[in-house]
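Lecture notes, structural biology module. Today: joint structure prediction for complexes of two components.
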Amino acid sequence: MLKSLRRKTIGDLRANRGQFLAVWLMVTLGTTFFGAMYPAAVNLLDSVFRTYDRLEYMDFQVQVDSPSEDTLQAVRAIPGVESAEPRLVVESSLQPMSVTEHAIILRLISVPDERESGVNRNELIEGHDLRNSGDLLLLESFANYHDLKPGDTLRVTLADQTTVELRIAGLVFNPEYLVAGRNRLVTFPTPSTFGVAWMPYSDLAELAGQPGEYNDIVVRLEGASENKDAERDDRVRLALTTAFEDYPDAVIYSRLETASGGVIDANINGNFPAMAFFSGLFLTGAAVITGILLARMVESERQRIGTMRAMGITRRELVTHYLAFGFIIGLTGGFVGSILGYLNSFWFMNTFLDYIVGGTLPGYKNIPQIPFILLGYGIVLVSSTIAGAYPAWVQSATPPGIALRPATPKTPNAISRTPLGFLPLVLRQTIRNLLRAPGRSSSTALGVIAGAMMVFSSLALWDTMAVCFGDYYDASAFDLQVTYNGLLPADSIGADLDQIDGITGTQPALIGPAALVDADGERLDTIAVVLSENEPFFDLTTVDGDDAFSNSDGVWISHNIQRILGVGVGDTLTIRALGQAHDVTIQGIVLYTVGSPVFVPQGLVMAWAPGSTAVANTILVRANDEAIPAVQNALAQMPGVAMVENIQQWEKDLKHFLNYFAANTVLFGSFGVILTIALLYNTVNASLRERRDELSILRALGSTRREIALTVTLELLIMVTVGVLIGVPLGREAGYWLLFRYNTDFFGYIGYLTMPSYLVGIAVLLATVFLAEIPGLRAVQKTDLGQISKSQSF
Amino acid sequence: MSQISMRDVRKTYRMGNNIITALDGVSLQIEPGDFAVVLGPSGSGKTTLLNILGGLESADGGEILNGDESISAMSENKLTTYRRHQVGFIFQFFNLLPTLTALENVSLSAEMSNRRAYNPVDMLERVGLGDRMDHYPGQLSGGQQQRVAIARALAKNPALILADEPTGSMDVATGIDVLRVMRDLNRETQQTFVLVTHNSAIAGIADRVIRMGSGKVQNIIQNDSPFEPEEIDW
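The predicted structure, tokenised, for the full assembly:
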């Protein structure tokens, strides 16, 4: 480049520093988000797999009562199995630790007496390992929630109502409870009511009165977690099924079918497309804005370009000169954005750790994803350089003599000459204005479409989560859920609760594991909920908006079952539970976001065994709001009660877990709105700038400000309408698509975009567009009309 | 009463640290129905004079009357109304709206006015473009575009028509043709025309010639026997 042109570049950068800063910020922001999100998802996955492999996380779990040593050996002999370990898992009740706390379920899991576990190993975070009788290791996330420390003593009540004192030796992380979900019905961490602890086998077996007994086997396969081998997994599963064929109640779960493994897998599956989508969208948006701004700047140099060409400066020198603007912006903005992106990725990872994992992930590493960062940097550098060079190349093609004059009016194209005599003149002019510059019109419409996509995909994420979880919370039309240690007659199970003050209603229920098999033989292990069809305490609504439990002729399945098994209303399923199997007809599909339960009317169960007594293991309790804590504590003291669940607290725990999604959605939405505003502002502004002289002529001829604003607004309104009609459904579907990546056996969304969101989203777009036209219209008002008499540029 | 009356009108511009005096105490009068030509070299202030007369710019001082209406102290909104109803503009580069046909460009102007506007079709026929009404500006020659601009300026039936170098971008024949149209319409409608040009040859067709230099009126000549445009020695 000529030395003097280099000086001009520096001078131009100084003179237009405001504009350059605006472009630079867009480039930097785009690169920051690009470099933050997707790499964070990659590092999260690697961190999780690293943790799994370091702590030998299980690939299969078999819940089975008293497996024989031969069966265990058969499992260990299955090709591909690295180790298989039997365990005793006992649910106990942790007594209130202070006057304000209530009973909590504490799952006690055995570890080998003399050696470290071969599967699902603990990582000690604080304190020491198991040394003395009566020691236990407590899950760190649970301990932190309740402010428990090593050395503290816990009072634990077992099924036989004996209470023992156990001492916390240490706090541990365990990959099985990376997400400390309880079971397939309650897959989310509820630390207020559920904790996990590990004890030596001999201690636990003695406490539980089950010496020599096991009820759970965990299996670890060979190879690293990142090398998924679906065929091998299928072979092992088949072999496990064969090994346990003499145990009809045995339930086999793959890693993804367990609460923690499934939730993590759902998150990872969902995070990748979401992060990639928003990374790409933000970078594309930033690149488009950069292109528009730089093109505008170069086009405003038309006459200077003509002058330089007239002076003999070659096109190549000119293009080199103008591409320097974009290059400098891309080089510096991309560099800063890449660094900020890496730093920002810690925020994404830490949000995941805090809300989903509970604070600790032993395999955590956030490594800069150099190839991906370089890709983003390269895209920004190339696109911003081209954005500066291309308009300069186009402008420099104009012969200097012509470039030095004002631009000549373009002959309207054939489309814009379409006879529109039936329309009023103002509309005719509006439509022809839109049609005569298809590039300008379509770029404005594309800006609105891109903006609408960003805004509405975020709104769809938000609404779907809000509606699905709102409905899920509302479905529990009770305050407390009391689980008993065994099955009891339904008509007597709650009889003794009347004496507790504050209870306003109770309903017995039977909640437990069940298997569903469809007509093709496909099986789903899930949870069945049996309760009275007369005013059930589960307030369920079908996806069609009808009430569930309207009859006792069949079952209502959650929408996740419908999705997983591909069944519908009227289809027949076989339900297997408590050693029985019955064919049932699906009466309806209910919206139930978490888990994949099947709801069975008690009348149907009674019809299977006429004359028998209904049994239950759960009481659903309604209580006065102010009495709930006291009622909860009183219930925990009742004989036979294993667990008391406070639904409000449960919701609170779940909402804490969902904060991760909420934080991401708010972030996506906020940046989407910022980008949308920037995108629309610049496209609208550029469009008005192009037409500034034309609008000024109208002013010179006597058109009022209002008339000019009306003309411009009318055009924008048409563009916004086109953009909204295309962008809103696209954005909505993109949001749904992203959310559906999270769907698993025990977690599933149905897409929602509510009317208020439609209105708010469209209002945001309209407001943005109309705000964006203000500077352009002001510029028209400020135009020196005296210059109009000598101008000719439209 | 004069159509235009200017008294001691001044206008300055700031260009960097320099102050340029565009009009330096201009006083003049133009009678109703006059075809006046403002003549002067580049930088003499003639375009500024026209812009102030048309309400495109405001003067720094002095008094300007259009008929009995003072435009010296009009607000921006009143100037817009003034341009809308009282003035018709003819620009050097025509400045037609490219998305409107010839007829629609003229109609737009007629629709704007609250005066008794002329029929746009009649106006276009009057300027010899009866067969080009549905053509867009881009499909017309320079002379034809300027005729449309003349029809547009006259269609709303303003009292004052202002033309800034209307033949400045034309060849001789086209320029004469355009001047012929303007002169004929002036005689026919008795609307006042003020035409700005640096071409002294055009001055011969005017009823009144205002010669300017360095922002001042150097002289005003009443021409009782103007030439016909065809007689101009371009």
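Point to remember: DSSP finds 20 helices and 20 strands in chain A.
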